[in-house]
Amino acid sequence: MISCWVRGLSDRDIEAMLGEVFGEQAKVSKATASRICQRLRAEFDAWDKRDLSGVKVDYLYLDGSYFKMHPKAKAEPVLAAWGIDTDGHAVFLGLGPGASESAGAWGSFVDDMKDRGLRSPLLVISDGGKGLCAAIETCFPDSLHQRCLVHVCRNLVEKVPLHAQGEVKRDYWAIFDGIETEGKAAEAEARKRAKRFIARWEPLYPSAVACVADNLDALVAHLRFPKEHHKRIRHSNLIERTFGETRRRVKVIGRLPGEQSCLSLIWAVLDRASKGWRGLTMTPKILRQLQDLRRDLLGGRPGRQQAEDLVAGTVTAAA
User: Treating both helix axes as pointing N-terminal to C-terminal, what angle do 237-253 and 259-274 enclose, rounded to 10 degrees?
Assistant: First the structure.
């Protein structure tokens, strides 16, 4: 029943399904619905307090989405964190409320995960919210920061007349696509392409081009990493799509009675969705590259299992 409820079936749909299996006496009473909510709340509370010291992520994604958590109040952000660990597996890390997406709200959210043992990642991927960017700089000063290329593209196109949007968008993606090199060479190539993009379009659309020129360091950061990972670490689309599923589930309910109910439901949807998230492939070559980056950025060393894989020449692939 919990799985059906979380996946978007209404109480009436679940009742009809149970009736087909168990007969007309199968009913979803208010007491049953209450027990479901209590169980989800208990599961979420345990998850929200769990130890994160055993989780080591190379890539950390941070994003938020707005939900109505309090009666007679405007929609407020729910903050989420997920990542790719050093074995290449996707892992759902954190979820919490925020009265806003300010630097303070994001900082408190991240600090809670750090207090429970979360270590600094190699790369943090986010949109361009000022509060979030400021919190990332404060909480992870040694990590690289990647701005979501999709968000920047949207902002860019919105500032360009309709007749030119297609061509500007095509030139924007040409900055990053088709780069065959890796590391600093790939970053240098993207900067060279960005320079040509700016020279062409800045005289016509200076405010639009500023989206690229003013954020270039955060747009090319992903190119420092293995090229096999580039297209997955340059945007935050996965969590946004999952948030879309959550909003559809909330519409079935109609309204949420409070913050705790909202968080429990969102967590339940994201937790179950995260079991199907694809990770990233890790080969001996990629592990060596990430090890070098870890040493350069964080002064760290790979974990025991990664070192053993490198010696044995094995391949660790995400499920």
Answer: 130
β-strand partners of 67: 76
Q: Is 214 helix (H, G, I), strand (E, B) or coil?
A: coil
Sheet of strand 144-147, all strands in order from the earlier edge strand to the far edge = 90-97, 76-85, 57-67, 123-126, 144-147
For position 10, what pLDDT does the model report? Answer: 62
**Residue 8 DSSP symbol:** T
Q: How far apart are CA 28 and CA 50, in angstroms?
A: 32
From the options 3.40.50.1000, 3.30.420.10, 3.40.50.1580, 3.10.50.40, give the CATH code of 51-145+236-280. 3.30.420.10
- The pTM of this model reads 0.84
> Helix, strand, coil: what percent of the chain each, to 5?
55, 10, 30
Handedness of CA 23, 28, 32, 33 (dihedral sign): positive
Q: What percent of the chain has pLDDT over 90?
A: 58
Confidence tier at 1 by pLDDT (50, 70, 90): low
* 316 φ/ψ angles, rounded to the nearest 5 degrees: -105, 120
Every domain of the chain and the residues it spans: 51-145+236-280, 149-235, 281-319
Locate 243 and state its tokens: 């948030």
pLDDT, mean over the chain: 85
The C-alpha angle with vertex 318 and arms to 297 and 122, in degrees rounded to 5, equals 10
